[in-house]
Amino acid sequence: MSKNLDIINQHESAVRSYVRSFPKVFTKAKKHKMWDENGKEYIDFFSGAGALNYGHNDDHMQEKLVEYVTSDGITHSLDMASTAKATFLEKFQDIILKPRDLDYKVMFPGPTGTNTVESALKLARKVTGRTDIISFTGGFHGMTIGSLSVTGNSMKRKGAGIPLQNTVTMAYDNYVDHDTLVYLERFLEDNGSGVAIPAAMIVETVQGEGGINAARFEWLKKVEELCRRWGILLIIDDVQAGIGRTGTFFSFEAAGIKPDIVCLSKSLSGYGLPLAVTLIKPELDIWKPGEHNGTFRGNNHAFVTATAALDYWKDGSFEKEIHKKSQIIYQFLEQIVADYPEIKGEVRGRGFMVGIASEVEGFAEKVAARCFESGLIMETAGPNDEVFKLFPALNIPIEDLQKGLTIIEQSVKDLVK
Ligand code: PMP
User: Fold this and answer.
1) Among 115, 213, 270, 369, which has the minimal tally of Cβ within 10 Å of its Cβ?
2) Is the ipTM of this complex over 0.95?
3) Site residues for ligand 1, CB cut-off 6 Å
4) Cα-to-centroid distance, 240 and ligand 1 (Å)
5) How far is the CA of 221 from the centre of ligand 1 (A)?
6) Whose CA is nearest to atom 5 of ligand 1?
């Protein structure tokens, strides 16, 4: 038993979870690999739950960060003006927003995904003067009272102890044989239904924690249409599906929709540093100074690495690389599902946001545990942890991608024996 793991088990509160799934102490990480304190090497198909889409300690970002730190660049400046912030904002406009014909103001809501969601919900209420938020079954948006109240997972909601209010949870796409949006429209048309016109709808285009559920583009378009018809603000939570994970910088680009508010965090800094932005249509920029602030809004180290990360998106070649490699993943996984019918598996996802759902109870967790023993880090998702979730770094070399996939296949094989 490791002394460091003993210390963690003894002193850290019981709320820890990944320590249980990956019971090793890690010391080092580079690109798509991690090492534990015994020097064992792992391929990382977890990527910090989507916070490390470019892998660990990317050379280009590291170089820029070291240069900045050793020249005494400002670390913390609240939301004062800094060169690191200005450079990030300019490059974000030039490389990301303008080429996509997107007109958003950038707000720094606080350092985490939860902060951006919370700011989006709060702003939507202020702008519309309405209270309710429509969210979807299987959605995950954060752990605070507001973000948890739009999270469609009863186990997570139990953490709040008491029921959470002012939200209506509707069925997400794909998982019902009726059209939830038709119901919603009926409710809104019928004043007596008890469903008031909401301030906003909050949607993930592909649900991460909910089990890699990818909404169809037509469904997302219908969500947008419904929002426009009723003056409801459309919030896309791209905290997990964004920054290239589904194959494009924003996950909603491919669906051809333009949300009113976009939540980004996780891989935005590119380096695992906490950074979040809430993108808002310019006309929504109504908060006065002080109506939404926070001590850790805008970490300059995170701005430096986030700026360097944007270089990946300069010329469209990265999208092509992601697409090519994701084809390899889907082919491989479809083959596993076909070769091992006992696992009753279904391949799910979009781009590099991929999973296999297994109807066999507890199977996904067993696969993840077996893979970990064999040097592959992978987590599970879904309300009953029924999906094993593949989140390799987007820039992983094909050879190591295939190595990781082979470990999965071997683990499945060993377990069905
Ligand atoms: N939204 C989505 C879609 C997420 O996946 C997460 C985190 N898993 C969050 C919000 C919350 O982000 P954070 O953990 O950084 O607060």
Assistant:
1) 369
2) yes
3) 49, 112-114, 117, 140-142, 204, 208-209, 237, 239-240, 265
4) 7
5) 23
6) 240
112 Cα–ligand 1 center, Å = 8
Q: Of the candidates 195, 142, 207, which has an alpha carbon nearest to the alpha carbon of residue 169?
A: 195
Token pair 């186990």 is found at 155
pLDDT score for 99: 97
Residue ranges in the chain whose pLDDT is less than 50:
none
Whole-model pTM over 0.95: yes
CA of 194 relative to ligand 1 center, distance in Å: 30
| Pocket probe mutation, ligand 1, options 52, 118, 141, 236, max atoms within 8 Å of Cβ | 141
Q: Which of 355, 337, 352, 339 is nearest to 401 (CA)?
A: 352
| pLDDT tens track for 336-350 | 999 999 999 999 999
The pair of three-digit structure tokens given for residue 291, joined into one six-digit string: 């109506």
Backbone angles phi, psi at 291, to 5 degrees: -75, -15
286 Cα: distance to centroid of ligand 1 (angstroms): 25
Indicate left, alpha or beta for 211 from its phi (over 0: left) and psi (-120 to 50: alpha).
Answer: left
Query: How far is 288 from 158, CA to CA, in rounded Å?
Result: 35
